[in-house]
Amino acid sequence: MFPHRHLLGIAGLMRGEIEAILDLAEEYAALNRGGTGDHSSALRGLTQINMFFEASTRTQASFELAGKRLGATVMNMSVAQSSVKKGETLIDTAMTLNAMHPDLLVVRHPASGAVNLLASKVNCAVLNAGDGRHEHPTQALLDALTIRRRKGRLSRLTVAICGDIAHSRVARSNILLLGIMENRIRLIGPPTLMPAGAERMGAEVFQDLRAGIEGADVVMMLRLQKERMDGALVPSMREYYHRFGLDAEKLAAAKPDAIVMHPGPMNRGVEIDGLLADDINVSVIQEQVEMGVAVRMAAMDLLARNLRSRTAERGGAAC
Ligand code: NCD
Q1: pTM of this prediction?
Q2: Which atom of ligand 1 is nearest to the CA of 108?
Q3: Which of 10, 106, 109, 139 to mutate to test the pocket of ligand 1 (most atoms within 8 A of CB)?
Q4: How far does the centroid of ligand 1 lie from the alpha carbon of residue 23, in Å?
Q5: Is the distance from the beta carbon of residue 130 to the nearest atom of ligand 1 less than 6 Å?
């Protein structure tokens, strides 16, 4: 069903594997709404370590909650207080943690490719919680689950992704996933925020927001990733909002039942109008957060099943 050892990206996943994660996540979403506290023992006896080398609110909190709801022992490694600040390399830190025999390692890192490198050095299952501008697979999966719940399907939809595409791992993972599921993808933003070869990713590129969202089923807004920009790539925040900020008036170009998404953190008045973001008739931002916990439960459950069967084959302890 899900034959992988790690979840490093959407690249390399098959359509059926994506559907398997989403189907299991749907079960966890129902359980989470039931509010019975400890939901499952899927990760009982396993240790999960969260290593976040970059700021995070939603992703870290939901991985922590997901692990706890499945019965894992969860440890958050605080990078600010760790030896990383004393100059230890990522690999040395990882090897130290590996020696403590975790079963699941959740990693966020500012360098693209860092999580793949780390996965090649440790024995446990690694989940990528975002690496540089490369991939953020659980975000794309939670977005996909939200879309599927709201639209009743996850294919043959027109999805417009707008904003800082060039620096966004969320955009990259979403483009891959939505492509695998056979959707029409449109990328909207100024040329300075568009990755080279965007068309080769199977998407149509627009510089005009209204033209790009015309007839769209889903409009996904992205934050300006200033921390990943070398210099000023937009003239001013006011100018950016005027051209690329989404408000109710511009959204009128999309389908009447279009939904508005944002991975957070959101900059109100920069990429999105605050009133629109809070409008529960169109905005699904809160549901995205809710589905984040369910998707992370599903992903860790599936990886843990593989971990347990590999351990059973070896006839020994995990890791
Ligand atoms: C995103 C990220 O970190 O890539 N946030 C998230 O995980 N929800 C997007 C962003 O930082 O803008």
Answers
A1: 0.95
A2: 3
A3: 139
A4: 24
A5: yes
CB of residue 137 inside a 6 A radius of ligand 1: no
Whether pLDDT at 141 is above 60: yes
| CA 121 / ligand 1 centre spacing (Å) | 26
Q: How confident is the model at residue 38 (pLDDT cuts 50, 70, 90)?
A: low
Find out whether 52 and 74 touch, Cβ atoms under 8 Å: no
For the segment 97-116, what is each residue's pLDDT rounded down to a tens digit? 889 899 999 999 999 999 99
Q: pLDDT tens-digit profile of 262-307?
A: 999 999 999 999 999 999 999 999 999 999 999 999 999 999 999 9
Instruction: Look at residue 319 in the predicted model and tell me its pLDDT.
Output: 47
Which atom of ligand 1 is found nearest the CA of 170?
A: 4
